[in-house]
Each structure stands twice: as C-alpha cells, then as structure tokens.
Amino acid sequence: VRQRYKDAKNLYMQGKYQLAQGEIIKIQELVPDYEDIREIERLSKEAIFIQEQQRRQAEIEKSKIEAEEKIQKQVAECQKKINPMITAQEIEDCLSPVLQFNPEHPRIMDLKAQVEMLNMQREAKAAEKAAYQSLVSRMKGLYDRAQAVHKKGKPLDAIAAYEKVIEAQL
Q1: In this structure, what DSSP letter does residue 31 have?
Q2: Average pLDDT, consecutive stretches of 10 residues, N- to C-terminus, the chain (170 residues)
Q3: What CA–CA distances, in Å, run from 111 to 23, 71, 96, 114?
C-alpha cells in the first residue's frame, strides 16, 4: 500500500493523472482512508477535468481556424467569379459550402454587397434603357404621324405636325 501510495503521488507530480487515479483506486480497495489519498484523488480528478477542458478548447480553436481558412479560400474563389452579370443566387451557390460556418462573416457580407450593387446598377441601366426606348417610340410615333400627314398632300398640316415633332423635345 505504501509503495502504491508513493507511486500515486509520484504519478500525480509527473502529471500522469489517469495513472495516479488507477493507483488510488487500488489503494482504496485495500485501505479506503489511507493518509491523504482522498486529497490526491480530488486533485488528480480536478487536473483531469482541466486537461479535458483545455483539450476541448484547443479543438474549438482549431476548428475556428480551419473554418476561417475555408471561408477565406472560398470567398477568394467566388471573388474571381464576380462580373457585371452575376446574380445573387449564383453568389449564394458559390458561397454555400462555407455559409454553414459563419453566414455573417465580414468577407461574405462584403461579397454579397458587391453583387447586390452590381445587380442594382444593372437594373438601373435596364430601367434607363426602357425609359429611353419609351421616349424613342413616342418620338417615332409623332414623326410617323407627321409623315402620314405629309403624304396626304396637306403642306400646312404637315408643317404643323413636323413642328410638333420638333417641340416634343424627346
């Protein structure tokens, strides 16, 4: 029992807490309250618990670093795909492998904002083009009416119609 006690104490001092626990259990089977064996048992259990917490924390940190690396790599790849014709759905599809890690990541949000800006610019150009085409078709309609009046052979009415075309400022 003394030798196991010394072994348990030495193992505890060396940081081999699991082995120390094994020796303590063997001692307690023979002599339940030998010297300060309960204190060594308590301390080794605490040390084991702390080691487990540190291991878990290290795993969490490692997974965070890995996730960050994956996000950075995927964002860089998606950045290359950005062009004036890209849609929000296409960028979502590109980013989908890393959205599970952190959908609110600043680089992801920045990339989405860039695509949204491109979409807004594209829509503005389309609206501008549609407005311009509307003006062109109105002007063409006025001009076609003036030509029709001209073809009827009424010069004064044709001049008035052409003046309307000029005054339209379309």
Answers
A1: -
A2: 89 90 88 83 91 96 93 92 88 90 90 92 95 93 93 90 87
A3: 59, 12, 13, 5
